[in-house]
Amino acid sequence: MHAVDAINEVWLTYQVTKDALKITTHGINRGAIELLQDTFFINSSTDKAKNDLAICRRAAGDYAILSMWAIFERYVSDALVRENGKMLDVPPSEFNSALHRKIEEAIEYWRANDVLDLIKPLVGADLVGKAKQIKRYRDWLAHKNPKKASPGNVPPTVAYQVFSDILQLLSFHRSELTEKLML
Q: pTM, whole model, 2 decimals?
């Protein structure tokens, strides 16, 4: 599955989850008990159910960001490895073969900010800056160090748009390079 498709799938899941939570909240507010049959909420008080739903709405957005970041990070690393592999298309030497292997082995351990800086010439400083902000928020979500304050909320819509824009630009760059190599 292509990264754009995977991120779109996460986005769709988030949208459906958000809407399902909204519908459930409306059902609870209206006392539509028949909607709650065979659900977790059937034995909950109205206040507890509303509180649980509010927590779930926030969590759904957080999980969407965590999932989109994982897909995005994997795709960008893979794209860099592919770009790096192109140096083997030019008559490979011992040096560029060794360099290619080293990059392929080590890229998993590179800092995300360093990887993002590498794609800055392709996607622009503004998008890379936004991706770094999403990374800071993602790190805070994943680790929730109580000694550190949130770096600022990133709405899932912003993360989705930034990732989609970057992936589109990287796909365009890949197509452009492929065309040049075929000439």
A: 0.84
